[in-house]
Fold each of these.
Amino acid sequence: MADGGTQIKRGRKFDQVLDGARKIFMSDGYEGASVDDVAKAAEVSKATLYSYFPDKRLLFMEVARLECCRQTEHALESIDMTQPVRDVLCNMCQHMMKFFLSPFGQRVFRICVAESDRFPELGREFYASGPEHVAASIMSYFDDAIDRGELQIKDRHLAAHQLIELCKADLFPRLVFGIDTEFSDEEINNVVTGAVDMFLARYGV
Amino acid sequence: MADGGTQIKRGRKFDQVLDGARKIFMSDGYEGASVDDVAKAAEVSKATLYSYFPDKRLLFMEVARLECCRQTEHALESIDMTQPVRDVLCNMCQHMMKFFLSPFGQRVFRICVAESDRFPELGREFYASGPEHVAASIMSYFDDAIDRGELQIKDRHLAAHQLIELCKADLFPRLVFGIDTEFSDEEINNVVTGAVDMFLARYGV
DNA sequence: CCGAAATTAAACGGATCAGTTTATAAACGA
DNA sequence: TCGTTTATAAACTGATCCGTTTAATTTCGG
């Protein structure tokens, strides 16, 4: 409201701090990142950093929350719901996989999984701004498609989460556990097609 | 060979060390566990611990490797492949979900995800003794079922990983990110049935 | 029962790191 | 230009923790 920047909170170098923190946390993880490194990357003194954030945890939470929202919104706004069902589903899966398999998506997932039992709020915020948000959008699309008679789904909640999970088949674990570091478009399309084929075999008209 | 115990390596208190390490690592994670705590839990001096394992990492790797093998084997040996396809698939899914949702499965997953980019061998070993091993067993069952004309699958590899991933729908993320801590049998059966329904809609005869 | 191997407790070295403090300097509004 | 707010660098505190060392004790085979 009162601030000219994007943040409600005070500050001239506030965004610098967030940017530096994001950079370091994303490349080093939560435990691996030292506050000194964050301050250095932000080109800000440690005292300044601590004048904005009371401790390392809250700084990290803010970074994670912001990034999850940003990414989820970006993914959602670039899906065109007017295409045929198969195409819409393929698009959704493409976007989800692109995020799952991106270095950034990997990092966020890794950190949230690692820290969310020692740091429950983080897990909850990530889930709300990530999986839950996406699932809600998918379900909303299902509603329309069901109304138009293009899909037959009883348990929309389950169906949405099944679709999400199908996008993780094979490639995602291989990336998370370091078997591979990147995949060809062919591999990705194969999984996307497989997911949509399976989904439509079950819920198509 | 030469040793009376179960271990190839030397030692009288070797197993004590592993047991204590498993207990502490599973309850505190890798970073959260201190070697002193491990030694205490193992009722062993730290010097003894270090006489068996050169450092904390290798100790953890050995614990993780052993536990993954143990759990995977246990799950595999209790599946009866002679039942009708639908029942076998339900059984498989039940077993997988039981593991995914167990406190132990959660712990291992969490730690392996967290540590596997700073500690690549761990991720690889976990993947090999977990997902890959399970997928191989599932594919081997597919081969038989296909021969008997009970399933129609072109890409067996993809199908196996799709089945695995369908078992994680909804409940698994909710547990990983701390939304819920346990689930009713009804919820679990719902996901299992949903997974098998979907799988058979796609690959059933 | 002896002597080698294993085990122990306890302290220590060296390193990292979160968060505070202090004294100084820059930025900026009035 | 003055005074307040904001930022800075650097040293410091207090704590944790890995891994080593030492000197004493226990275990156990032969």
Amino acid sequence: MQIITCQARTWLRLWRRCRSISTISNHLQASSNGFEFEHKDKKVDIENLFRLCHSSHVVKRVHALLVVSGTTHSIYVSTRLINLYARHGDLAFARKTFGHIRSKDAYTWNSMIAAYVRTGCCSEASSCFNELISSGEVPPDNYTFPPILKVCESLIDGKKIHCRVLKDGFIWDVFVSASLIHMYSRFGFVADAQNLFDNMPFRDSASWNAMISGFCLNDNVEKALDFVNEMRLKSIRLDPVTVASILPVCAFLGDFLSGIMIHVYVIKHGLEHEVFVCNALINMYAKFGYLQHAQEVFDKMLVKDRVSWNSIISAYEQNENGKSAIRYFRGMQCHGQQPDILTLVSLAACVAQLGDCQNGRLLHGFIIRRAYLMGNIIMGNAVVDMYAKLGILDYARRVFHEMPRKDIISWNTLISGYSQNGLASEATEAFSEMESCVEVTPNQGTWVSVLPAYSHLGALQQGMKIHGRVIKISLHLDTYVGTCLIDMYGKCGRLDTALSLFYEIPRTSSVPWNAIISSHGIHGHSETCLKLFEEMLQDGVNPDHITFLSLLSACSHTGLVDKGQWCFHIMQDKFGIKPSLRHYGCMVDLLGRAGLLEKAYNFINDMTVQPDSSVWGALLAACRTHGNVELAKHASDQLISIDSENVGYYVLMSNIYANVGKWEGVNEMRSSALGRGLKKTPGWSSVEVGNKNDVFYTGNKSHPEHEQIYHKLHALTDKVKRLGYVPDYSFVLQDVEEDEKEHILSSHSERLAIAFALISTPSKSVIRIFKNLRVCGDCHNWTKFVSKISEREIIVRDSNRFHHFKDGSCSCGDYW
DNA sequence: TTAGGGTTAG
């Protein structure tokens, strides 16, 4: 054997040196002994040659060698060549070889059909099968049906094949039956699949596996798990395929115990070195968050394939350890394993997670250089998502528009990208654009992406329209859609609707609880927040870090210092949640707002982590409210050293100086902001009139009805002054004359929006305003008076909270 | 010589 193999190698070496078929032909003739397979044990020798075929290139060499030796006249040899070409993905040569065979046997036809299936050419496989049937040259056999069943495109085609199977009497074959079971499951006819399964006289493990996969394909994962348990009860051995199919089910059902039991089974039955099994174990442990276990399985693997590397990379990515994921990606490359689309998809998520713009661009470049990758929708969507999460929306938009094909997830990714970056108008525009595309139908993800945009804009009418649409398709009771609706109603000032919706949807996860608590929080109903929190605990729902953020923020806005501190402590002591910088920020806000500035400052100094801009920002805002210029200076110095590009800190500090008349300080702040090329964020307010949102900028006179608006504004100010309103000029930043100061205050954008709403909406109707910055104290006071004289309920949502004005007072009780 | 059921994703 060994000698013959060496001869085959020698021939191949010889062939490598030869430039043409004629040269090798001369060598063949020159050889005194002739070519081994011409004389002796022909079959063994050819098989040895075939065994050397590790690529399509070598197959071609061997093929040429066989042509010159005249061996390809044998159907056996030609059919083997078809198989070899197909195994190496060279369909063109498989087809060419098939075409040269004059009289084909069942092996030849079966091999060609399998070659088409293997290379994903489904319609060609069907045509080939039809040709075989119509030619009548040879009848199909039990080997013909499994591959063709795998690729049939409709249930009708599948049933036709089923009839043929029955007619030809191949239903006894377990391979054929498993393929039929799978075919029926694929088209959603799981009852027909089970009928076939039940009537099988003999079943092997693949028959059970086909049924298990059938249940999974038809969203009946519980039944799949039942089947596995039945197999174990009947002592039917679970094979690697069973294990690889059922482990994702355990992860999906959150059934960790079953997952562990399967792992024990794997070890006991010597399956722990099966690549498919290990890959599925890595994925299962990753989904349960047991990275250490996933890592151990990966480390013990004797052979790792691309899926193994992808799985460990994705395990770290899913558990938010992007750095380790990238380390494994490098390891994968060192081991000579080429990345595929799934590797790159995970990497894009890692890069986004790490906020690593530089590597994001590098990754995008890598994908662009392999142009075929961008043709893949999943790849394109992952890149759009990456740029959106990195906050580079221009790139996200560009990649989206350059994608040759887009699906609903592409649109959802773009819409949520805009929403999450605060670009609500862009999100709703993208949604409208999507609506005009006939080829996509909105799904759950679409509503979850667009509703936050309407919430952000305070566009109640638009949000209600979406509510109507989701009711029609029975999605309003979906936890995620329902939560977005609660958030939307909460943010648009309809707390009652939010609450009734909350009690309609499933409340087993923290998600809807967080939404309803936060809705009450922004309206200043902190006592209700705490009651809802108690109810949440009674219902056995575990709070998460978001729940505590909402609670702390609610306590902070209403001055419930003790309750806030209690929340901060139980979060750590009772629920083991480590405070994030956002929690620390809320605590500083809570103490600072209550005037406990020193306590807030000491709290920052006692922090176990480095305070960031949100923490110092909260202290600075509190200093503004309580007029502590000295501490404010310290906080603003810290802020500017952390984030010198944020104009808000300069504005706030200059505001503090202005408040105490330190105009030098104001100028210093202004010039240092200008020196860095920073411009004050222009304030704007929007109001929904009819189905349209009108936007007003401070001092803006470009609105078509600006004359009437200013006229109304002056009339209102005159009236409220008579009622006792006195402008508070401390909210004016500039060092100007008194009447000029009044002019500056009176042109704040929310006042323009309120004046416009008063002249454009029916009397008694509620006015809802959205402001991008915080409402100033003077506008707050002015609006209170306006709500009294106009007999209107005015709801102003600013960047921080809700102000609900009614009959001359505000829901926030003037707690600033 | 040819075949079925399987793991990772936006």
